[in-house]
Design a protein that fits this description.
four-stranded antiparallel beta sheet, alpha+beta
Length: 402
């Protein structure tokens, strides 16, 4: 009798152990870090793409802190942000340990480290610090257009050290973060199991199975066990880009569970576009603006029609304009009918008149001594004609004598 009781107890205890050790469905969805290899594993077969992506904004959108990744200056007199003469934050680099320290009336109140750098620096950066296993946004960021430290976007004119970073922020600025302690708020993440940057596996899926197979079958040229956008429908391509460039999305499922090729509506309540394109922000809703453009409505275009995401194409106006020419061919009705410029001039710069840079409403940072925040400027994705920009462009170039 006693032996049966002991055996039954052991079986029940063993079952409880298995139940505790076995992850739930949600835990399984966010615990597949062992399937990731890192982009360096792609280099052997895709060296040019790998090298190109190292300078691309997607790769640089989140990094570890160092003297290169942090764009702000740590030189004396350029490393202080004053809220008032008595209240200020000092940015310090002590033997490659980077920090922000709050001072009040000359006394140090607190110091927090730069633990992660968010933002490629094309327009600006913000900085994160670990507090246990949660991430907080530091009060001072960087605005590229003025090459200055600035109060982080959305912060009032006071130092705030406790704004939490959510999984929604992380999944648009990194490839993977493992969520821990799911019952706690704010959200908590592993300090070890994460992959910074928008890397190969963000778009093409976790790559371990693909890499293992291709290394064992080098004679095969067709990639196996990897996601290829070449086979995607227009909706699948747009859904993936829209997950981070499609306005306000309310998550239905845990962060990092949406994968390329999935139906966006199964993972998010999407931001319906019912207003004019002009109120939409050029930073957060490129898809919303593009979807109201005649170019989009009259074609099967996607983001990849114009963007080569593996490369840094910042400022390459002629490159983007050549892609416009794939549809707006010279000599056809769809070609630009503006008569004051030569055909060559029209072919070289479609962007300034039809997709100019405008002030962002979401990336606005308060500079020292200013009362109103300074916006970053970004290209609008509502493709149309902007008369004021046409005038500016004409004033900036030599006119044709024809």
């Amino acid at each position: 009798m006693n032996s049966r009781l002991i055996l039954l107890t052991l079986l029940v205890f063993d079952g409880l152990l298995l139940r505790c050790a076995r992850p739930t469905e949600k835990e399984q969805q966010t615990s597949d870090e062992s399937l990731y290899t890192g982009s360096i594993a792609c280099k052997n077969c895709h060296e040019r793409v790998y090298q190109d992506h190292l300078s691309a904004p997607h790769h640089l959108t989140s990094q570890l802190p160092n003297s290169v990744s942090i764009k702000g200056s740590f030189e004396e007199e350029n490393n202080i942000f004053f809220y008032s003469p008595q209240l200020y934050v000092v940015m310090s680099n002590a033997h490659n340990i980077f920090s922000q320290s709050l001072y009040s009336h000359g006394k140090k109140v607190k110091t927090k480290s730069f633990d992660l750098v968010f933002g490629s620096g094309v327009r600006g950066q913000t900085y994160l610090t670990w507090q246990d296993s949660s991430l907080l946004q530091l009060p001072i960021g960087y605005l590229t257009s003025v090459n200055m430290w600035a109060n982080s976007p959305g912060f009032s004119n006071r130092p705030i050290f406790n704004r939490p970073i959510t999984g929604r922020c992380l999944e648009c600025h990194s490839t993977f973060f493992k969520k821990v302690l799911p019952e706690k708020r704010p959200e908590h993440f592993s300090k070890k199991n994460f992959m910074l940057g928008i890397e190969c596996e963000k778009c093409h899926g976790a790559g371990k199975k693909h890499v293992d197979f291709q290394q064992e079958n080098r004679q095969l040229k067709e990639g196996k066990y990897i996601i290829s956008f070449k086979n995607f429908s227009q909706k699948q391509q747009l859904d993936f880009c829209r997950s981070c460039h499609g306005g306000k999305l309310i998550a239905k499922k845990p962060p990092f569970t949406f994968k390329a090729g999935s139906d966006l509506n199964e993972f998010f309540n999407t931001d319906s576009v019912k207003t004019l394109a002009t109120p939409l922000d050029s930073h957060g809703n490129q898809y919303g603006m593009l979807s109201q453009s005649k170019c989009f409505l009259q074609s099967n275009m996607t983001c990849l029609t114009c963007h080569q995401v593996h490369e840094n194409e910042k400022g390459k106006t002629e490159v983007f304009s050549k892609r416009c020419m794939n549809c707006h061919t010279s000599g056809t009705k769809s070609f630009c009918s503006f008569k004051k410029l030569t055909t060559t001039q029209l072919q070289q710069n479609c962007i300034q008149c039809h997709m100019p840079e405008k002030n962002s409403n979401s990336i606005r940072m308060l500079l020292q001594g200013e009362d109103a925040p300074t916006p970053a400027r970004m290209h609008v994705h509502h493709i149309t004609t902007y008369p004021d920009e046409v005038v500016k462009y004409l004033q900036s170039i030599p006119m044709s004598k024809d």
